[in-house]
Structures are given as structure tokens and as C-alpha cells.
Amino acid sequence: MKSIQPRKQRKMLFNAPLHKKRAGIASHLAENLLLKYDRRSLPVIKGDTVKVMRGSFKGHEDKVAQVHVRKQVIEVEGITTVKADGTKIAKPIHASNVLITKLNLTDKWRRKKLEGGLSEETRKEIEKEAEEQIKELEEEQLDEELVEGEEIPEEVEEISEKKIVEKTPSEKTEKKEEKRPKEKKSSEKIKPKTKKVTTKKKTESSKKKTARKATTKKKTEVGK
After folding, report:
1. Are both 19 and 56 inside the same structural domain?
2. In a shared domain, residues 39 and 17
3. Total structural domains in the chain?
4. pTM of the full structure
């Protein structure tokens, strides 16, 4: 983009494709990270620890909860606003108002990009940090699963077990076998109705034939 005009710059920003918008959601690194990775800025991802540098929440430091690519905005844990009806919502913050203090290294693609052009010592340090972060994530997931398992009441578990027992393959076959004779019975009931209809039609046709014969006889007698 060569134009300096604000209207063209804004048009380019809002009409940009998603891959370019994603690259635009970037923020500066802290001094220790800048010296370590030899980079000024990086795209923000979920899990990065971040420090707010501007606004009413200046100085707040926490993890990134979510990244909205279309709106070009991020959500930080602990930063919320209150709506008119009293409900709390996460307040969106622009990535330029934020400083990255710790990187999330669980993504192998991100690690490859960071390790490019660095020494072996720094690469080993990055790998160690990544292993530690992965272990922490696994422990958090296990804790969440345990908490969810404790909250499930006994009645719900009994109902789920009963449903599993009811849906065994042996019982399904029995149900199918029970349904088959019922279908035969229904077909047998329909058959006599059709026969009755045919007999009625036959009687009506025979009556008409007899009436015609009688009329023909009368005509012959009159002619004589």
C-alpha cells in the first residue's frame, strides 16, 4: 500500500483477507524477550501472558483468553466490563496497547519460527520451556476432568448406565424379531376386507345381469 491517505489505509485494513488480519494482531515483546529472541514484535496467540500498557486497566498482567481475528482484538483474563443489565463481559483490547511478557511455546510451528537464526543454547532453552508448559497444560486438564467427575451426581450415573444396558445388541435383535410377526398380523387383517369388497361388487354385478335378462324376456313376450 503506497497511499498515505487515512481513508485508503482504513479501507485496506477493514477489507483485508483473514491471513493478513491475523498477522496484524501483533504486539511488542518485553526487553528480556527482545534480547533473547532478537525480535521486536510477534503475533499474539491464546496463552501468552500480557501486560496492558494503556487505558483504564493499565498495569494489569494476565493470560490472553481469546483472539478475535475479524475484529482485530484480544481478550485478557480478568478484564471485564458491566452491561446495563448487570451482566459482565470480557472487554476487548487492541493488541497495540499490550506488551508480551511471556510466550506460549506449546505450538511447534511457533517454536520453529522463533528458533530460526538463533544459537543452539537458546534453542535448547526454548525446548525446555515448551516441555514445562506442555506438562502444566496436561496437569490443568487432569484437574478439570477430576472436578467435572466429582460434580456428576449418582442418580445421573445410574440413569446413564441403564441406558447403556438397554442398548445392548442382543436386545435390539429381540425387538426386531418381535416387530416382524406384528407386521404379518396387520397384513392378515387387511386381506379379508379386500375380499368383502370384491364379493359385494360381484353380487351387485350379478343382480344387474338378472335384471337385464328379465327386461329382455318381457320385451320378447310383448313382441309375440
Report:
1. yes
2. yes
3. 2
4. 0.62
